[in-house]
């Protein structure tokens, strides 16, 4: 789960616009969720993670190209693994208004998993 009010593009005015009703409408859709349904190991630490993304009140299947970046023990006795992933989202697929010349956003994810 991602709190959409926390989205950060490293530009305060752009962030305000992204969160507004003109774009993702974080006031109405305050959460985005992703539930994985399939993971394919492509070798050499690369994975395709397929699942359902809910954004702007719309759920669509997407695939995230991910790469393993490392693993280790944390100070509390747990095991953690880190991944970086990317995917391209077509705005119209999530009923987000297209403004300007770009009909998509590229999303980069930094994920840390804790072994249970």
From TrEMBL:
> Where are the bilayer-spanning segments?
none
Pfam families the record matches = YceI
InterPro entries in the cross-refs: Lipid/polyisoprenoid-bd_YceI (IPR007372), TTHA0802/YceI-like_sf (IPR036761)
* Lipid/polyisoprenoid-binding YceI-like domain mapped to chain residues: 1-114
What is this protein called in UniProt? Protein yceI
Which species?
Vibrio harveyi (Beneckea harveyi)
Which gene is this protein's source? Answer: yceI
């Amino acid at each position: 789960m991602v709190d959409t009010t926390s989205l950060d593009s490293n530009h305060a005015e752009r962030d305000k616009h992204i969160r507004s009703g003109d774009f993702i409408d974080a006031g109405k859709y305050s959460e985005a969720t992703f539930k994985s349904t399939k993971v394919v190991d492509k070798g050499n630490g690369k994975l395709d993670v397929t699942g359902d993304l809910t954004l702007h009140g719309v759920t669509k299947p997407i695939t995230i190209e991910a790469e393993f970046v490392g693993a280790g023990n944390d100070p509390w006795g747990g095991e953690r693994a880190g991944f970086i992933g990317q995917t391209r989202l077509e705005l119209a697929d999530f009923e987000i208004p297209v403004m300007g010349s770009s009909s998509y956003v590229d999303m980069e994810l930094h994920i840390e998993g804790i072994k249970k």
